[in-house]
Write a sequence for this structure.
């Protein structure tokens, strides 16, 4: 689309309505393409018959980039693989639809709980100690576990757990995919 045309339309709307906002333009600048959101208001003056406008623009490039990345992440999260996200204390924050199909648990039943609720009892404490040690040292664990569905059925699950960390190396979340 043409940025100049969008600006003209915003000014015309402000002429008619007194205010126009939410118009977005994309400009190719020396440092690369940037996106802006425009707000235009008609300035009321008694002295002149000419219309005057105040035009404000806000660089929304980073916000739009973050929105696109969130959309991609949300699409990936709702994949065919069961997924859950916990905080650093292992409290479940979110699960996807595939998690519900596989385990039988609705999101409301598991949010705030520890994934240990899925344990079948077939693994001893050493198994989970090794898993936690690998997550602490490598920020990653992958293997087969026996878990239990809401119905009580025990089933094998190939599980990958990845630790999410800050730039400083502090773990903020764990993502499990199965």
């Amino acid at each position: 689309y043409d940025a100049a045309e969008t600006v003209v339309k915003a000014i015309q709307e402000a002429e008619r309505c007194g205010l126009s906002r939410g118009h977005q333009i994309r400009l190719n600048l020396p440092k690369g393409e940037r996106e802006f959101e425009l707000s235009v208001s008609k300035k009321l003056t008694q002295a002149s018959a000419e219309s005057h406008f105040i035009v404000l623009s806000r660089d929304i490039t980073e916000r739009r980039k973050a929105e696109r990345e969130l959309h991609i992440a949300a699409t990936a999260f709702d994949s065919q693989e069961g997924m859950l996200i916990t905080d650093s204390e292992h409290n479940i924050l979110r699960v996807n639809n595939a998690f519900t199909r596989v385990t039988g648990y609705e999101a409301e039943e598991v949010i705030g709980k520890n994934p240990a609720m899925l344990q079948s009892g077939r693994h001893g404490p050493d198994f989970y100690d090794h898993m936690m040690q690998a997550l602490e040292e490598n920020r990653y664990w992958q293997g087969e576990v026996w878990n239990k569905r809401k119905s009580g059925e025990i089933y094998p699950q190939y599980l990958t757990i990845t630790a999410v960390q800050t730039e400083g190396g502090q773990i903020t979340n764990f993502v499990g995919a199965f």
Remarks:
- The radius of gyration is 26 Å.
- The chain has a mean pLDDT of 90.
